Amino acid sequence: MVRWEPGAAERLQKAALELFATRGFEQTTATEIAQSVGLTERTFFRHFSDKREVLFYGQHLLVQAFLAGVDTAPPGASPIEIVASALRSGASFFPDERRPYSRTRQSVIDQNPALKERERHKLAGLATTLADALRARGVDELAATLAAQAGVTVFGIAFAQWIREDEQRSLADIAAEVLRELLTLTARATASGRGPQ
Amino acid sequence: MVRWEPGAAERLQKAALELFATRGFEQTTATEIAQSVGLTERTFFRHFSDKREVLFYGQHLLVQAFLAGVDTAPPGASPIEIVASALRSGASFFPDERRPYSRTRQSVIDQNPALKERERHKLAGLATTLADALRARGVDELAATLAAQAGVTVFGIAFAQWIREDEQRSLADIAAEVLRELLTLTARATASGRGPQ
Asked: Which of the residues A178, A184, A185 would you substitute to probe the B interface, choosing the one with the greatest number of B C-beta atoms within 10 Å?
């Protein structure tokens, strides 16, 4: 009989991050994570397919936040405006009180190539899902792919800035600024008249 | 004594791709690849650190082609114009006669998650190197990262289009068109006045 442990996934995730950060990702086993919060390895694997996945728990909620932003963009919004709305909504998934957690989590990921790979995989998936949502709003194939990729690039850069030690601004504010910088950059290329041939 | 096999890496790469495409990546060993062109496993591992790497042989030349394009961009070129120059130069690495090879190679990569991961890793490395080169030209941190990421995104989308069965245009032409589409997209967001908040 399977006993349901309320909040088990969250407890396991918190414990895992602590152990990864102090002992190292490779040096920590799923059994140790489970035991540290009084759970069994079996419970661990009921929630997570592997040890890497525990760091990416809840990411479908981030994807949903992006998609909610696509939905709430006004009719007639351009692809980049829709992406801006998705970024605002996605950023709300990371309130300021989450910053210390995100910072520790990222330092664990950055130290492990397999985790970096998983992260790139997740971001690639986010870009694909976002592009699909843009297409579903009638944006054409190429524009949807480009706008979605641009959105994920902006998000990645903004996120890396948000977790810097001295950073105070919200993720939404940083993302908006990075997106504006992208628009400024591309406008400069167009305005020069030399542009890309 | 190590005997130098002229062109061994290229022969191994060609043989590997053929075996991967017909038998599958997982089902092919380094020994089989080596034996199929009359070489030893030892020779294989003198050239490639692992079986995955054989598909990415020569990628430093692609990176160099991008960097050459950064160097030849005129003084005063904007970041996106420098990236456009890098894309033209990078695209020259894929002449039309290479298309069938690239097509087969991509179908092998797309069928194997580990190879997809390695590919994402290589593209991430290209973006980092390109951003460094932009910074070395005096482009500021954020603009360099954004422009380099945009360049790699454009390259990835253009490449996927270039290897489609019915595609006739050169990679350079497709890349220029994808970049123009990105500029059009961002210009629309700026021009609407609503823009990203």
From this structure: A185
Confidence of residue A2 (pLDDT cuts 50, 70, 90): very low
Residue A190 · residue A197 · CB < 8 Å: no
- Do B186 and A182 make contact, defined as CB atoms within 8 angstroms? yes
Place of tokens 């990628």: B59
Question: In this complex, which of A121, A179, A186 lies closest to B182 when CB atoms are compared?
Answer: A186
A and B: number of Cβ contacts within 8 A: 132
- In CATH terms, is domain B58-190 a member of 1.10.10.10? no
Residues A166, B125, A117, CA angle at the centre, nearest 5°? 80
The answer on pLDDT for A159 being more than 50 is yes
Q: Which amino acid is at A62?
A: L
With CA atoms as reference, the chain A residue closest to B86 would be: A196
At residue A188, the pLDDT reads 85
Å from A145 to nearest chain B CA?
8
Domain residue limits, chain B: 8-54, 58-190
Band the pLDDT of A192: cuts 50, 70, 90: low
Distance CA A39, CA B169 (A): 59
8 Å CB contact of B190 and A185: no
The rounded percent of chain A whose pLDDT value lies above 90 is: 84
pLDDT category of residue A42 using cuts at 50, 70 and 90: very high
Nearest to B126 by CA among B62, B177, B69: B62
Instruction: Give A11's pLDDT tier (boundaries 50, 70, 90).
Output: very high
Secondary-structure class of domain B8-54 per CATH: mainly alpha
Task: List, for chain B, all residue ranges whose pLDDT scores fall below the cut of 70.
Answer: 1-6, 191-197
Expressed in angstroms, the distance from the first to the final Cα of chain B is 66
A58-191 has CATH 3.10.310.10 classification = no
